[in-house]
Amino acid sequence: SSNQMWGGRFASGPAAIMEEINASIGFDKKLYAQDIRGSIAHATMLAHQGIISADDKDKIVHGLNTILLEIEAGQFVFSRKLEDIHMNVEARLAEMIGPAAGRLHTARSRNDQVALDFRMWVKEELQKVEVALTSLIAAFLDRAEEHADTVMPGFTHLQTAQPVTFGHHCMAYVEMFGRDRQRVRHAIEHMDESPIGAAALAGTGFAIDRHMTAKALGFREPTRNSIDTVSDRDFALEFLSIASICATHLSRLAEEIVIWSTPQFGFVRLSDAFSTGSSIMPQKKNPDAAELVRAKTGRINGSLIALLTVMKGLPLAYSKDMQEDKEQVFDAAESLELAIAAMTGMIRDLTVRADRMKAAAGSGYSTATDLADWLVREAGLPFREAHHVTGRAVALAEQKGCDLAELSLEDLQSINPAITAGIFDVLTVEASVASRKSYGGTAPSEVKKQIAWWRARN
Ligand code: ARG
Known about the structure:
Elements: H1 16-22, H2 25-28, H3 32-48, H4 54-72, H5 85-97, H6 110-146, E1 151-156, E2 159-165, H7 166-190, E3 193-194, H8 210-216, E4 221-222, H9 226-231, H10 234-260, E5 268-269, H11 288-311, H12 325-349, E6 351-352, H13 354-362, H14 368-379, H15 383-400, H16 409-415, H17 429-435, H18 444-455
Parallel strand pairs: 3-4
Antiparallel strand pairs: 1-2, 5-6
The site of arginine (ARG) has 10 residues, from α6.
């Protein structure tokens, strides 16, 4: 049988395989609430403009509200024959209220309808991500405050570089997730324009009021160009780009947690709540949650590339290719929400092993730069020469199998006679971090300022 929405032009129904490739109801039913809200706003505007009667509008609005309840109660029967959420809802409305249902689609197309529904969904999702990031940042601020004085090794090339504090390291992530949150806020602003009323692509001859629907649906204003409106999926691409960058941050953090929780590093201990055991090796405690966060990044990045690739060859305006936008965004959104929540839990729960961190911070000649800086400051050496002298001190310590701070004054003076006992004040890890008071540096006094700056903004 031919289609009840466009049966006029068609003598027979679609091939089974056509129905299968064409239908999106399996995933776009997620948009039911946005679809119904959008339709109510549209019908209300049509009646306000005298395009449909107040009586029909009332029937439509009442019917749509009933459908919302049916869907939420799990009583709604979705049909693949009806392709997508838009036609499923409209067909049910026709069943309920008869011919008045046919007036809802006046001055509208599924092209602006889906652009509206999906944009509202993405906007709401971004609002959730913003809240989730705020919790993650709060978790880091608490840990940073607690560990503003906890010394750990800072790394470059994953080789011990200079001592830093765990609080400072935490605050690096606060900066990263803070930028992600800013990107989320900007994206919400970018997409805060209502597509409804662009119709199929050219606008409509009906005297609609797009400002009215925009306002009713919580948008700042209507979109300006009807062709762009139904062709545009930048809001989805922006969501996926932001999600990919954020997931990349989460993945780097996950990687650090995996490394830190090894017996070899032993910087942190994961809570039982965020680790798993082994079915064969009784001693194991595995960082599965961190590993899965790291892996979700692959899915999320994949979704971004998938949608970029779908969009890149499309002529204006709408093409059915664009139906493939939703699964990528839904999957990425679910993964991102999970990853942020799991990471927030892990950060809140993990035990910091300050003794292990401090021992590691002191090994690997991490205060060599402090020795060189002392020679510049106190003995007036040019930095390059101080670097050379320090290199010889490191070689001597290595030869003796001791730390820089364990070399005797005589040893140090044999390398450069200008060295005095004052040198020992800068060779400890605590002295090293305390001295790095430059703006944004690792000194506990600086880190506490960074924490206060963020507390005022979180
Ligand atoms: N299910 C479609 C989508 O997700 C709705 C828009 C259909 N428009 C059309 N002209 N066939 O993109």
